[in-house]
Amino acid sequence: MKVQLKDIRQSYPTSDGRRSVLQDIQLSVREGEFVSLIGPSGCGKSTLFNILSGLETPDHGSVIKDDRVITGETGHVGYMMQQDCLFPWRTVLGNAVVAAEAAGKGRKEALERAKELLPIFGLEDFADEYPTRLSGGMRQRVALLRTVVSERDVWLLDEPMGALDAITREQMQDWLLAIWSRFRQTILFITHSIDEALYLSDRVILLTSRPASIQGEMTVDLPRPRSRSLVTQPQFLRLKEEIWSQLHHV
Prior knowledge:
Layout: E1 3-14, E2 17-29, E3 34-38, H1 45-53, E4 60-65, E5 68-69, E6 78-80, H2 92-96, H3 98-102, H4 107-117, H5 136-149, E7 154-158, H6 166-183, E8 186-190, H7 194-200, E9 203-207, E10 214-219, H8 234-247
Parallel strand pairs: 3-8, 3-9, 6-7, 7-8
Antiparallel strand pairs: 1-2, 1-4, 4-5, 9-10
Helix pairs in contact: 7-8
C-alpha cells in the first residue's frame, strides 16, 4: 500500500476536558489510486489531512507511507488546502515554486520545472501575473501546480473546488482528471459533493459525524476516462443514491 492510517485517534483540549475528533481511523490507499472522503461538516476531515501531512501528531496510531512510519513528519506529501494560500507579492511562477523551496530544492531547478509545466496548466501566458489578477479557477491551478512542482507522489486535496461556481467547478474536475491521468499520483480528495466524489474517484470513503470514524466505503466501478455524460447514467445514479442513503444514516 502507498499510504496507510492505522488506529488513528485525535482529540483537542477544551475548557472541561478533551473533545474527541477522530476515532479509530483505519485506511489504506493503493499507489496511483484516487480516493475521495465525504462526511458531515466539522467531522474532522481536515484534521485527518493535517495528520497525514505531519502538521499534527495524533494521540494514538500511525501514518505509514511506502512501508515506513512517518507519523508527525512533514515533507512526505503534497498538501493543497481549502484556500489556495497564494502569496500576493509573488507572481504565478514565484508561487509555483514555494513548496519546492520550502522542501529544500534548488530554486533554479524548481523554476525550470514550473516553466515546463505552465502550458499543461494553461498558465503559460500568466507566469508574471500576480494572484489578484487571476480568476478563482486559475488560482486553483496555480495552487495545484505548486503541489506538482514539489514532486511529492501523494497529493492531499482539501475541497479545492468548494468556492468555485458550478460551471468552473465542472471544468476544473475535468482538468484535474487530465492532470491525474498524466502524472498518476496517489490522490486523497475531500469534498462535500457526492457527484464530484463519484465523478473523480476510484473509491469513496464515508465518514461519520464527530468523532469521525469510517462508516463505509464504496468502489466506483465506472469506466475511465470519464465524461460528463456519465453523471446521467443509471449506474452513476445508483451509486449516488447508495452514498446519499448511507450518509443520512451516519
